[in-house]
Every structure is written in C-alpha cells, then in structure tokens.
Write a structure and sequence with these properties.
By secondary structure, this protein is of the alpha+beta class. The protein has 3 helices and 6 strands. Strands 1, 2, 3, 4, 5 and 6 form a 6-stranded mixed sheet that branches. A hairpin with a 4-residue loop joins strand 1 and strand 2. The longest helix has 14 residues, at about 10-25. The protein is globular and about 45 Å long. The termini are far apart.
Length: about 140
C-alpha cells in the first residue's frame, strides 16, 4: 500500500455536494459523484437506484465522462444526499475504478479525516482483470 495523498481536491467535493443537494431527489437518486479529468474538467453524475440493482454514481460518472470525451480520470469522490457527506465506494465500484483507472485517487473519510488515497489502497490483494486475460495472439 502507498501513503495517502495529503492534498484533497476540495473543489471536487464541493461539486459533488452541490449535485447531491440540488439533483438527488427521492429514492432513485441518492448519491452524487464528481471526478476530475486529466485536462482539469470536472464531471458529475448521480446514481440510478432500482430494486433490481442499478449503477452507483461512480459508474454512471464513468459513462458520463466518456460521453464528454474525458477518458482519463485522476480523482473521484461520492457524496450522499441529505448532507450525508463523503461516501466510500462500494466493492464493485472499487474494482471498476481500478480496472478503468489504475492510478485514480479516491476521496474518502469525513471532516478533518477526509483524504485522497490511491484506489489500490482500497483493494488490498487486488484482482486486476487485465492481468488475467489471454493474449489475443
């Protein structure tokens, strides 16, 4: 595991918090996510809850970022509605973030314990999907 990053992208947390407060309504959209692309852009999204399952805000954000041409994300954060603050990604999101963006940092924690950590710190002894694929040749 690597050491936590000392710099927290507060603008990113504020962007996700704003979306959670203004766009999350009812039971269908309860979490907002924001990510910073390598070019500095901030992309936001909300989850799409459904009783059969549904994509978390982080996964919706990956698609929204791609639709906007942002394929290299550097930092991501999720924030809960009703002022629940920063939320850690679930296991599925941790794995997807690792596979899509192995160098991404994830903002976790609360209050003065908020910090940005490399995604692989959130998945000790990780399974990296790409490492287990058969070569095409």
């Amino acid at each position: 595991m690597t050491a936590p990053t000392t710099h927290v992208d507060h603008e990113l947390v504020e962007a996700a918090t704003h979306v959670a407060r203004t766009r999350c309504r009812g039971d269908n959209h309860t979490v907002a996510a924001a990510a910073r692309a390598r070019d500095g852009r901030i992309v936001t999204a909300v989850n799409a809850y459904h009783f059969t399952g549904g994509p978390c805000a982080e996964l919706v954000l990956i698609g929204a970022a791609a639709a906007q041409g942002a394929y290299e994300l550097e930092t991501i954060v999720a924030v809960g509605d009703r002022d629940r603050g920063v939320l850690p990604p679930c296991g599925r999101c941790r794995q997807v973030l690792l596979d899509y963006f192995p160098g991404i940092e994830v903002i976790v924690g609360s209050g003065d314990r908020t910090r940005a950590v490399p995604v692989d710190d959130l998945l000790p002894e990780t399974y990296v999907w790409a490492d287990h694929q058969l070569d095409g040749g």
